[in-house]
Amino acid sequence: MFSARSVSLFAVLYGVWLLLSGIWEPFFLISGAVASLLVVIVAHRMDVIDGEGHPVQLSWRALTYFPWLIWQIVKSNVDVARRIVSPRLTIEPADGWVEASQRSTAGLVTFANSITLTPGTVSMTVHEDRIHVHALSKAGFDDLQAGEMNRRVTQMEGRR
Question: Were 36 and a residue from 13, 28, 68, 137 both cysteine, which residue would form a disulfide, CB within 3.0 to 4.6 Å?
Fold first, then answer.
């Protein structure tokens, strides 16, 4: 009836509940477990505990991807701030298609969201093999077309 994904979802929900509540009294521990179990039962009945709804296949590889993504967000933040403050740096908008080599929906959505999370770039349209991107600068767009983010998301997805 319940899969390993259901058990994993329960563990994640209950773990987050424990971390956020900080209360270790029996009543609250049981209440958190019951609440987490009810969420898993409802999610199971809705049939949303799958590779998209709870992508555990990305969990360990994401530990190397997210620090890299955070660094890209910081670098882009500095670039956007410099372009706003400095009159010498121009804002030269660019848009076009960026190749997407991900084969799962979770991987493709992760790539599109990573583009949008990075300041100065926005994913506008997502297709199976490409994403239409608008960038604040040509340099930012060229960075995406170089394919480093695409390669890293594909690697996190489990394909090289």
Answer: 13
For the chain, residues with pLDDT lower than 70 are 1, 51-59, 159-160
**Rounded to an integer, what distance in angstroms lies between the CA atom of residue 78 and that of residue 98?**
23
State the DSSP string of 20-62. Answer: HH----HHHHHHHHHHHHHHHHHHHHTT--STTTS-GGGHHHH
- pLDDT confidence of residue 158: 79
Q: Count Cα neighbours of 16 within 13 Å in the Cβ-side half-sphere.
A: 7
Q: Residue 120 carries which DSSP code? A: T
* Residue 139: count of CB within 10 angstroms of its CB: 14
Please tell me whether the overall predicted TM-score, pTM, comes out greater than 0.90 for this model.
no
pLDDT for position 59: 67
Torsion sign across C-alpha atoms 48, 111, 63, 137: negative
61-85 core/surface letters (b: 16 or more CB in 10 A; e: else): ebeebeeebeebeeebeebbeebee
Q: Is residue 116 exposed (0-12), middle (13-18) or buried (19+ Cβ within 10 Å)? A: middle
